[in-house]
Specification:
- By secondary structure, the chain is an alpha/beta fold.
- It is about 35% helix and about 20% strand.
- The protein has two domains: about 260 residues, 4-Layer Sandwich (Metallo-beta-lactamase, Chain A); about 180 residues, 3-Layer(aba) Sandwich (Rossmann fold).
- The chain has a seven-stranded mixed β-sheet with strand order 6-5-4-3-2-1-22. A seven-stranded mixed β-sheet has the order 7-8-9-10-11-20-21, covered by helices on one side. Strands 14-13-15-12-16-19 form a six-stranded parallel β-sheet, sandwiched between helices.
- α14 links the parallel β20 and β21.
- α4 runs antiparallel to α8 and α13 packs parallel to α14.
- The protein is globular, with a radius of gyration of 21 Å.
- About 45% of the residues are buried.
- The model has no long low-confidence stretch (mean pLDDT about 95).
- It binds zinc ion.
- The site of zinc ion has 4 residues, from loops.
- Zinc ion binds next to loops.
Length: about 450
């Protein structure tokens, strides 16, 4: 088995692994490069392989950096099926359609080129084939199965085994611990090679038990100051978990009931998908469902689907909580709220997810005091806070423990899907702790099992 790295090598986005054996060629993920215009220009470059010769694609989860180039793959001649869990199929549809709207807007306003057309998305959706956790799919001399990665709803890591010739596990993105609704990451199965993400490969999240306390304190402080708590949301990850916790805190009267505006049509659609698949919930969420409760439905929660509904948030008196996309603040409705509240000392911006370099979110996270939003320069007076425990990704400790706790440990580890420093830090730590050699591949590198 040969594995080539055609994305997420010494960077976070563009996940795409080309796996080749005698007679079978597959891809694991086909994600978009995201970030600066330079990075995004790379989406237009040809793939490092001929899409016409690929037999099948296996998808770990619905984030754009794992599925974003699927329509381009189809446009460039891919004829096979795309295997993914049923929730991932539904979420990928939402993610691709959203990306298309953004691309079309930029095309109309800034004459930026189109990576693919709407029809290519429709064609992509017709290739989806459900592959649930724990089912083994045979393809040529390969056996492939998906296991719950606990990263976002429906997310998987993928194990590929070639008869008599080695096994590789692709971690996809590995989830954080004790996340509401999601189940924990399944134990690492027996494998020769592990290709693991390293987004937080150089960091350790604060204890998740303090997460709820921090959220509670922050809400109470903002309410006292009569400010707005602005939370940039990742539509298909933390938002639903955050609502789950806000609902819980209000129900237990730990925080006063203030209006919570969910200003993200994509997050609302995602909530609908989550509601459709209760069989994927963890125990706690299942217990709520069995009691007939809908944790996405509480009296203070206002869903803003249309632009007009979004504009009405401005008129609503403070204190209030606003959750809006995009998560890295480089576009979307959040920018209008930031324009309004970044200069307000009574307000707070809560960062709950990874902020890639060159994004507005990264500038705020780094403590920059003067930023540009929608063409206006703003002096940042609002409090900027981040809670790492809300991250959808495992930290260094969890990734290392995932390997340490495996019954049969891999003989080699490759760290991908992280900025270079994070990937190298994880590789170093892995070898220190597990005695397993670990490398950080570069774009285009190939390994042979
Ligand atoms: Zn992800």
């Amino acid at each position: 088995m040969r594995i080539s790295f055609f994305g997420a090598a010494r960077e976070v986005t563009g996940s795409c692994y080309f796996v080749e054996t005698s007679g079978t060629r597959i891809l694991v993920d086909c994600g978009a490069f995201q970030g600066s215009a330079f990075v995004e220009a790379r989406n237009f470059q040809p793939f490092g392989f001929d899409p016409k010769t690929i037999d099948a694609v296996f998808i770990t989860h619905a984030h754009l950096d794992h599925v974003g180039r699927l329509p381009k793959l189809i446009k460039d001649g891919f004829k096979g099926k795309i295997y993914l869990t049923p929730p991932t199929a539904d979420l990928t549809k939402i993610v691709l359609e959203d990306a298309f709207h953004i691309m079309r807007d930029e095309h109309r306003r800034q004459y930026r080129p189109m990576l693919y057309e709407s029809q290519d998305i429709q064609d992509t959706l017709t290739r989806f084939k459900a592959l649930d956790y724990d089912r083994v799919m045979k393809l040529g001399n390969l056996s492939i199965n998906l296991e719950d990665a606990g990263h976002i709803f429906g997310s998987a890591f993928i194990r590929i085994s070639e008869q008599g010739n080695g096994t590789a596990v692709f971690s996809g993105d590995v989830g954080n611990q004790h996340v509401p609704i999601l189940r924990e990451t399944v134990a690492l199965p027996e494998t020769d090679v592990l290709i693991t993400e390293s987004t937080y490969g150089n960091r350790v999240h604060e204890d998740e038990s303090t997460r709820e306390t921090k959220l509670r304190d922050m809400v109470i402080k903002t309410i006292r100051q009569k400010g707005a708590l602005v939370i940039p949301a990742f539509a298909i990850e933390r938002t639903q978990q955050l609502l789950y916790e806000l609902h819980d805190l209000m129900e237990k009267k730990f925080i006063p009931s203030v209006p919570v505006y969910l200003d993200s049509p994509m997050a609302i659609q995602t909530a609908d998908v989550i509601e459709r698949y209760p069989q994927y919930y963890d125990e706690d969420a299942t217990a709520h469902v069995l009691k007939g409760e809908n944790f996405m439905d509480f009296s203070s929660l206002k869903l803003c689907r249309t632009r007009d509904e979004s504009k009405l948030i401005n008129e609503a008196p403070k204190p209030k909580i606003i959750i809006a996309g995009a998560g890295m603040m480089n576009g979307g409705r959040i920018q209008h709220h930031l324009l309004r509240y970044l200069g307000d000392p009574a307000s707070t911006v809560l960062i709950i997810g990874y902020q890639a370099k060159h994004t507005l979110g990264h500038q705020l996270y780094e403590g920059k005091k003067m930023v540009e939003v929608l063409g206006e320069r703003i002096n940042v007076k609002a409090t900027i806070l981040s809670i790492g425990a809300y991250s959808a990704h495992a930290d260094q400790t969890k990734l290392v423990n995932w390997v340490l706790n495996a019954t049969h440990k891999p003989s080699h580890i490759y760290c991908t899907h992280g900025e270079e420093g994070a990937a190298i830090a994880l590789a170093t730590r892995m070898t220190q702790k597990t005695n397993i050699p670990a490398d950080v591949p570069r774009f285009g590198d190939t390994i042979t099992l």
